[in-house]
Specification:
With about 400 residues, this protein is α/β, with parallel strands linked by helices. The protein is built from 14 helices and 18 strands. Strands 7, 8, 9, 10, 11, 12, 15, 16 and 18 form a nine-stranded mixed beta sheet that branches. The protein has a seven-stranded parallel beta sheet with strand order 3-2-1-4-5-6-17, sandwiched between helices. A two-stranded antiparallel sheet has the order 13-14. The chain binds NADPH dihydro-nicotinamide-adenine-dinucleotide phosphate.
């Protein structure tokens, strides 16, 4: 029985708070704070309607550390779950340290003025969390999050060592819009337009964004083009599982998405440098995000499925030589919407956020300091995925990927 404070009131938060309310044995009191209180109230109303549970709501700018510290002290939660934007990670970690409360998030810190996704800013908090006897759990979404837990599960149950790891993120959903992103547009476009990087034999290999493409036949979705990208879990996995020779991350994009993005990039609309417009500085990407459809409005029209998973090759635990396993989850957009009022991209992030919070609050995962997902026993987390809407499957492939 534990009190939790969730910060941020977008699609991911909405799913997570609904799922927490459905597990009131673990989350006995849920508090929700964000920049716009009306969005917290809308989530609280839906939660009341669907589950009968109450959620207390507050308005807060999470970048105002003293005000946030006071709010945390006033509520007195056992854990703060950060489901706002990556820009707020460090201020929320500072407020948690000041208030003496553990911390969790789903995405690593990014400075606003540079599209750079690296863990060093948050890893630098390790000693302070350790000395305070508090835990900070980083990246409990699907990717990062479940994909890292999938890797440790394969390492515990199937492979003695992992030689190569490919993370495949496929969204086979159709939202019926010309161009829209399935989570926060600003964060999504910064991620997709960043140069691709993968890990190979102890070094980063960088290639221009969206230039390396493969076609892959995803179960329940069909063949899709997927593109090599940088993703933050590569950095933490190569650090915590240093035996892995090659780690790559792939994400599917339809041709229409790529065409729109290319045009927007070519005309400068994805830039993050300020531009003077009618006497005011505006950031083109923030303006673009403001005119694109809001991800939380896509749920009612989105059909199709997501399929996200890991393909790992390495020496089998039973000594039978090199083996390749594929472990993945398939999630249906319409089912996700029916259950929580949000599409599957928010669902596949919000459910793991609830599970990560449950790992801390139930004591299934313990420790003082800053941790990534692959540093813990995967089994209790994998059990909860099966029980709470994200069942997974594992199968042996005939051999490693041909590309
Ligand atoms: P949204 O943009 O829908 O929601 C973000 C919320 O944060 C909004 O309610 C916003 O407030 C609030 N917010 C922004 N700035 C502040 C601030 N200064 N103080 C308080 N609240 C603030 O994003 P999503 O729900 O799509 O994504 C949430 C997080 O999940 C992001 O960090 C994203 O990167 C991460 N994510 C992780 C994934 C994974 O698999 N690991 C996958 C998808 C997303 P307002 O409503 O006023 O704008």
């Amino acid at each position: 029985m534990s009190k939790v404070l969730v910060i941020g009131a977008g699609g991911v938060s909405s799913v997570c708070v609904h799922k927490m309310a459905m597990n009131s044995g673990i989350f006995s009191e849920i508090h929700l704070a964000s920049r716009t209180k009306a969005k917290c109230d809308a989530i609280a109303a839906s939660v009341k309607d669907r589950t009968g549970e109450s959620v207390q709501t507050y308005e807060i700018d999470a970048e105002e550390v003293p005000a946030l510290t006071r709010l945390i002290q006033q509520i007195g939660p056992k854990l703060v779950v950060n489901l706002a934007l990556p820009y707020q990670d460090l201020p929320i970690m500072d407020a948690c340290l000041a208030a003496g409360v553990s911390y969790m998030d789903t995405a690593n810190y990014e400075p606003k003025d540079e599209a750079k996704f690296e863990y060093h800013w948050q890893w630098a908090y390790h000693d302070r969390f350790k000395e305070a006897g508090l835990m900070a759990l980083l990246g409990s979404g699907f990717d990062p999050g479940v994909t890292s837990v999938f890797a440790t599960w394969l390492k515990k149950h199937k492979l003695r060592t992992i030689r190569t790891l490919d993370i495949l993120d496929c969204n086979g959903g159709d939202h019926g819009q010309h161009f829209a992103t399935n989570f926060n547009p600003e964060i999504n476009i910064r991620e997709v337009t960043a140069p691709a990087r993968h890990w190979l034999n102890g070094e980063w290999v960088e290639t221009p964004a969206l230039t390396i493409r493969q076609n892959f036949d995803f179960e329940a979705v069909g063949p899709k083009n997927m593109y090599l990208m940088y993703h933050e879990e590569i950095e933490s996995l190569k650090t915590h599982l240093p035996e892995i020779e090659r780690i790559r991350f792939w994400m599917t994009f339809g041709d229409a998405y790529i065409t729109h993005l290319t045009v927007l990039q070519n005309v400068g609309m994805t830039g993050i440098e300020p531009v003077r417009f009618q006497g005011k500085d505006i950031i083109p990407l923030q303006f673009l995000a403001a005119v694109l459809p809001k991800p939380e409005t896509l749920g009612s029209t989105t059909t199709g499925k997501t399929n996200i998973g890991d393909i790992a090759t390495g020496q089998a635990l039973d000594g039978s030589g090199e083996k390749t396993f594929y472990i993945y989850n398939i999630c249906d957009h319409e089912d996700a919407f029916h259950e929580t009022g949000n599409q599957a991209v928010s669902y596949t992030t919000g459910v793991p956020a609830m599970i990560g919070a449950a790992m801390l609050l139930t004591g299934a995962w313990t420790g003082a300091g800053v941790f990534n997902m692959e540093q813990f026993d995967p089994d209790p987390y994998m059990d909860m995925l099966n029980q709470h809407g994200l069942p997974w499957q594992v199968k042996e492939l005939a051999g490693p990927l041909a590309f």
